[in-house]
Amino acid sequence: MSRNAESTAFRSALEVIRAVEPRVADAIGAELTDQRESLKLIASENYASPATLLAMGNWFSDKYAEGTVGRRFYAGCQNVDTVEALAAEHARELFGAPHAYVQPHSGIDANLVAFWAVLADRVESPALKKAQVRQVNDLTEADWFALRRELGNQRMLGMSLDAGGHLTHGFRPNISGKMFDQRSYGTDPATGLIDYDRVAEAAREFKPLILVGGYSAYPRKVNFRILREIADSVGATFMVDMAHFAGLVAGKVFTGDFDPVPHAHIVTTTTHKSLRGPRGGMVLCQPELADQVDRGCPMVLGGPLPHVMAAKAVALAEARRPDFADYAQRIVDNAQALAEGLLSRGATLVTGGTDNHLVLIDVSGYELTGRQAEQALLDSGIVTNRNSVPQDPNGAWYTSGIRIGTPALTTRGLGAAEMDQTAELIHTVLTQTTAGANADGTPSKAKYNLDAGLADKVARHATDLLATYPLYPGIDLT
Ligand code: DSN
C-alpha cells in the first residue's frame, strides 16, 4: 500500500468519526502521538500493521456468526466463513498445526476454550459413554449432578506466578483457579531456570489432568519435548500457552524442542503480542481435540468477532512472509543486546539474561519496588510494566521487578545500538530514583523521588532515539 493510501484511509476514517463524536477522533489521534513519542517496552505489546488495523474497522463488526465455518446458527455468514477459514488456514500453515480455532477474543478466552475442550474430552465424553447417552441433556439428574462434580474436581499443574507463569493457569483470582485444584512448579532459586526434574516430581505426586507450559514473564526458552514426556508419564494432557512467544515460534526462532506445536496436545495464544496481529486469541490442537475446541462458542465464548478474525487473517498472512522470520530473530537479538547493556551497567536480571523477547530486571538492586521503578521510568518517557520476580518479597502489586520486551521497538526498526542506549536511559533513571516515605515517615513502596529535570532530559533522549524510526511512517494525520 502506498503511503498516500494509508494517510488517506486513516484521515478519512477520523473525519467520519469526528463528525459524530470529535472527542473520540481526538483521542485516537492523541494515542498515535503518544505511541509515536514513547519508548514502548511492554513485553506484551506491539504495533499491528495498517492493513491489520483497517481490516478491523468495518461492517464485519455487525455480523453474528455463532458456530463454525459452514455450520452457523445464523444465516448470511458466507463472508464470515471466508475470513474465518482464511485465518484458520494461515494459522495451520504458519505453525504446522493440524487444527486452528481463531474465534477466541483474547488469551484468557483461548485458555478457557482449551480447558473446556480437555474437560469435555477427558471427563464429559467418558461419562456420556458410560451412561450410554449422546449428550448432556440426555443424562439423568443424578448422572448430571455427578458429572458436574467430576468436572469441578480436576487438577492442573502450571508454572508459579512469581516464576513467570500466568494468572489464567489455575490461580485463585482467575476463574481457572476456581475451576481447578491447582499446584504450581517454580524455578531453581539459584539459577532462576525451570528445573525439569522438579516438574516431573510434582507431576508424579499431584497427577494433574492438565500440565500447562508457557509463561508471561520467564526470559528463557522452555523445552517442550521434556514437558510432554512428563505429561505422558502421568497421563496428563499437555497444554502450552504461547501467548508471549508465538511470534518467535512463527518466525522459526524457537524450533525443535522449543517449538510447542508438535509437542503439545493443545496450544493457546494471543494474536497481538510478538505475533503482531489484532488483539485476540487462538487455539491450535491435535485432531483428537478439534471437535471439542470448535465448540468454544457458545461453550465459553460470546459471538465471534468477524472483523477481528478478518484482521487475524491479514496479520497471519503477514507472518507467513519471509521477512517475518527476520523480524522474529531481531526481537531476540534486541532483547539480548538490551540485557547485555543493562548487565554491563550493573543491573540484576532474573536468570542473568534472556533467550526470548523479554528481560526481567530485579530492581531491588536499585533499592526500589517495581511500582516505584515503573512510575519513574514512565515519567521519563519509558513505558514498561512492573512484575513479580521469583520469591518476590513485595507481592504481586508492588513487586520487585520490571519486565521489558522488544517486540514493539523491533517493529519500529530499532537495533542493537539503540538497545544499548535504551539500557543507558533505564539505568540512569533507576540509579537516580530513590524510594519515598509515607506521611508518617515509614518507607513507602509506591512513592519515589526523581528529579523532574532529569526525567525530562531522559524523555527527550528517548524521543531523539525514536526520531530515526518513525512509527507508521506512511500515516500522516496532519
Ligand atoms: N497482559 C498480558 C501480559 O502482559 O503478559 C497477558 O496477561
Automatic annotation (TrEMBL):
Q: Which Pfam families match?
A: SHMT
The record's principal subcellular location, in a coarse class, is cytoplasm
- Tell me if Cytoplasm is a UniProt keyword of this record: yes
The keyword Cytoplasm appears for this protein: yes
The protein's job, in short, is: Catalyzes the reversible interconversion of serine and glycine with tetrahydrofolate (THF) serving as the one-carbon carrier. This reaction serves as the major source of one-carbon groups required for the biosynthesis of purines, thymidylate, methionine, and other important biomolecules. Also exhibits THF-independent aldolase activity toward beta-hydroxyamino acids, producing glycine and aldehydes, via a retro-aldol mechanism.
The name this protein goes by in its record: Serine hydroxymethyltransferase
Q: Where is this site: Plays an important role in substrate specificity?
A: H272
> Pathway, per Swiss-Prot/TrEMBL?
One-carbon metabolism; tetrahydrofolate interconversion; Amino-acid biosynthesis; glycine biosynthesis; glycine from L-serine: step 1/1
Describe the reaction catalysed, as an equation. Answer: (6R)-5,10-methylene-5,6,7,8-tetrahydrofolate + glycine + H2O = (6S)-5,6,7,8-tetrahydrofolate + L-serine
The record's EC number reads: 2.1.2.1
Location of this chain's protein in the cell? Cytoplasm
Requisite cofactors:
pyridoxal 5'-phosphate
- Record-annotated Serine hydroxymethyltransferase-like domain positions: 19-120, 153-426
Identify the NCBIfam families for this entry.
PRK00011.1, PRK13580.1
CDD domains the UniProt entry points to: SHMT
Keywords carried by this UniProt record: Amino-acid biosynthesis, Cytoplasm, One-carbon metabolism, Pyridoxal phosphate, Transferase
Which family is this sequence assigned to?
Belongs to the SHMT family.
- What residues bear N6-(pyridoxal phosphate)lysine in this entry? K273
Q: How does it assemble?
A: Homodimer.
InterPro entries assigned to the protein according to its UniProt record, in alphabetical order: PyrdxlP-dep_Trfase, PyrdxlP-dep_Trfase_major, PyrdxlP-dep_Trfase_small, Ser_HO-MeTrfase, Ser_HO-MeTrfase-like, Ser_HO-MeTrfase_PLP_BS, SHMT-like_dom
Q: Which residues bind (6S)-5,6,7,8-tetrahydrofolate?
A: L161, G165, H166, L167
Single GO molecular function: glycine hydroxymethyltransferase activity
